[in-house]
Amino acid sequence: MTKANDAGRTLRWGVISTADIGVRAVIPALQQSQYNEVLAIASRSVDRAQETAARLGIPRWYGSYEALLQDPELDAVYIPLPNHLHAAWAIRAAEAGKHVLCEKPIALTADEAARMAAAAAAAGVVLAEAFMYRHHPRYQRILDVIAAGEIGRVWGVHGVFTFNNAHDRGNIRFVRAMGGGSLYDVGCYPISAARLLLGEPEAVTVQAYFSPDHDDVDMMAFGLLEFPGGRSATFECGMWGDGRNTLQIVGSDGRIDVPHAFLYPSREAAAFTVTVRGETRVEPVPDVNQYVLQADDFARAVFGLAPPRFPADDAVRNMRVLDACLASARERRRVALAPAE
Q1: 217: part of which helix (H) or strand (E)?
Q2: Which family, according to the similarity comment (predicted)?
Q3: Which of 104, 134, 135, 260 is catalytic?
């Protein structure tokens, strides 16, 4: 079914996996969006694929990922597979001529991410990392406040994303070979936010707790990112800590506080505050679904209506920083980064 939009058509999606993030958030957002429709879903269990398709109103289901990629009527695929499978299936999808939206972290290493980006470029398809929060208009408003000089010179950022499910010993987040660990799972958010606001870091230092009870993945991590001009970002991430997802931007004349920086329970909770010389105001935000905005931004890029908001090389750069953070934490040292190309 073609929805009314300025492209005159819809982007037809297949979903590889019945993972919770897709079922709970991304698939409903695609269905609610202006430019997209979900035609198919695949699982390694055909019964699970069929049940999920029936529950979500998806017309086609497949018992293998390969079969979905062979469907000639699909334009794009969404990949919410475990982290260690992102690169292989994104490359296969690109080679099958499908545009790819891949869950974060886009890969396990910057080299993997670069291979994914190269495969997408060779096939002439769009590849994007599913950092939905960046598509919310409040982040553009934050950038506008900074650009207007309201908080003066920006010196630093502090981002936090933590939760506690350490008791769930069977969770794939605790399997090292599958890309488990808090830096991959939630640390990538404040790192990407710091890059959005400050550019590319020059060095990183990270202290982490690698739990012997959780396959030696990093359960908590605290990091420092060094940026040019004496600016810095600090972050906390973890899967064994009190639940928070916040962002603070500190300037010479004020600050910006985002109490629910990446996930928010309500429109009101999505608001942020700006404090200038002791005076605080609340910046309201529109009532939007950031997953829907992500979907429509992706489709507009595919249709040539707008350039990608965040091209594939941004994902490669984020993985480059994650690589350095993991190396720093494992080796207990400061890791310098070469200038980004």
Answers
A1: none
A2: Belongs to the Gfo/Idh/MocA family.
A3: 104
